[in-house]
Amino acid sequence: MPTHLTRRRALRLLGAAALAALPAARAGGDASASKGWCRSDPAFLVGDRVVDVVLGSDPAMLAAATGPIELVLAVPVGVPASLLAADAGFGYGYTIAIREAADLLATTEGAQLRIAALAPATDDRLPVTIYFTSLDADGSLTQKEATGAANGWITLQGH
Asked: Distance between CA 16 and CA 6 in Å, rounded?
């Protein structure tokens, strides 16, 4: 099995990661899904892993958003990382920074990552959740999430 990641394989992994990152309530069709939910997602290539970062909120966020989502992806020193794709965020796109962080480690299990996001809006009460999905080259999947509110930084650390 080749150890390199082709563009076609990266796009397939990206699609799988995006589907896996959907909130369970929405996928399961239970009563809470009737409230509605909007989401936005940039995807990254970190080393040989595809990392999908989905931000979700109430549909009201689409009208309340006041600017681009600020997103910072921190990776261990020396680990290559790049943006693969991004959508329009909550209508304003993103301001994305990829930074190296000396406190994060790269191990045989993969690189530690830290994601910080801020979604500006006119309503501080709007919930914002970061859904993190990482799909390794061997097909293993990691998922985590962190919840906060509009206009406040939300941080999530994953592996």
From this structure: 15
User: What are the tokens at 137?
Assistant: 């080259």
Which helix H or strand E contains 97, and what residues bound it? strand 94-101
Q: Please write the tens of the pLDDT for every residue from 95-117.
A: 999 999 999 999 887 899 999 99
β-pair partners for 111: 106
Exposure string of 24-51, with b = 16+ CB inside 10 Å and e = fewer, is: eeeeeeeeeeeeebebbbbbbbbbbbbb
pLDDT at residue 48, as a whole number: 87
The pair of three-digit structure tokens given for residue 155, joined into one six-digit string: 């941080």
Task: Identify the bridge partners of residue 64 per DSSP, sorted by sequence position.
Answer: none
Residue that the structure tokens 């990382």 belong to: 81
Q: What is the pTM of this model?
A: 0.77
Q: How many residues in the chain?
A: 159
pLDDT given at position 153:
98
